[in-house]
Amino acid sequence: MKKISAVLAALVLTATLAPVSVAAEKPTSVPGCKKSTAQGHTPAKVKQPTAPAKKLAKTLTFTTNCGDIVISLNPKAPQTVTNMSVLANAGYFNKSLCHRLTTEGLFVLQCGDPTATGSGSPTGWKGYANENLPKAGAKNYPAGTVAMANSGPGTNGSQFFLVYADTQLGPDYTIWGKITKGLDLVKKIGDVGAYKMQGDQAYYAGDGYPIQMVEIVKASAK
């Protein structure tokens, strides 16, 4: 998943359930999700780890406005697991929005950018290398996979994507975990769909901002 362009930046910062007025026949929310008031903001400064932790965290939990998403962390990606755990426990992801949803061909919810523009990364960090890459081929990112988003080799930062249905991508994105709780929730978010804007009109899109606003209220790794 390439990081989404800044085209949606202005939209993301003031996102509402705009599609209600143009497609009332389809659901525009997931039952049980709470209203979010989160907005894009400057990424927090967190010291970048220079080496994998001696003792890796085993789970990372994202508490969202729609419920918990629990990830079993993969020790085959030790530097990535270390980095994401440090960010989570430093509050980096707190009150941030998931800024991208794809529903056609690729089935992922992308999060991890506090700016909510798709271009944000931890302040002062250098991009780091991929780990635990899958083989090329069909369904090489199966449902439940958690992987890093990047813009090419050595550009990993804080953005990641949650795969909610079997997906095929190039073998270019570090797999660092698997969803053990909350996959059904991500699927429901995917079912509601994504949108983009044309002028002041919202329209459904296969790749855009989630219609159901998704906020990471808090993240923690242990």
Mind explaining what this structure looks like?
By secondary structure, the protein is an alpha+beta fold. The protein has one domain: Cyclophilin, CATH 2.40.100.10. Helix content is 12%, strand content 26%. It is built from 3 helices and 12 strands. It has a 12-stranded antiparallel β-sheet with strand order 3-12-1-2-8-6-7-5-4-11-9-10. The N terminus is likely disordered.
Helical content (DSSP H or I, runs of 4+): 10-25%
CATH topology: Cyclophilin
Poorly predicted segments: 2-23
What is the second-level CATH architecture? Beta Barrel
Sheet of most strands: 12 strands, antiparallel
Secondary structure tally: strands: 12
How many angstroms does the end-to-end distance come to? 27 Å
Envelope shape: globular
The H-and-E topology, N to C, reads as: HEEHEEEEEEHEEEE
Which structural class matches the secondary elements? alpha+beta
Q: Percent of residues in beta strands?
A: 25-35%
Backbone CA Rg? 16 Å
Instruction: Count the domains.
Output: 1
Q: If helices are DSSP runs of H or I spanning 4 or more residues, what is the number of helices?
A: 3
Please, what is the CATH homologous superfamily?
Cyclophilin-like
Please state the average pLDDT score.
91
Question: What is the CATH top level name?
Answer: Mainly Beta
For the largest beta sheet, what order do the strands appear in spatially? 3-12-1-2-8-6-7-5-4-11-9-10
Could you outline the blueprint of secondary structure elements for this entry?
Elements: H1 9-13, E1 59-64, E2 67-73, H2 78-89, E3 96-97, E4 100-102, E5 108-111, E6 145-148, E7 160-163, E8 175-181, H3 183-192, E9 194-198, E10 201-205, E11 207-210, E12 215-221
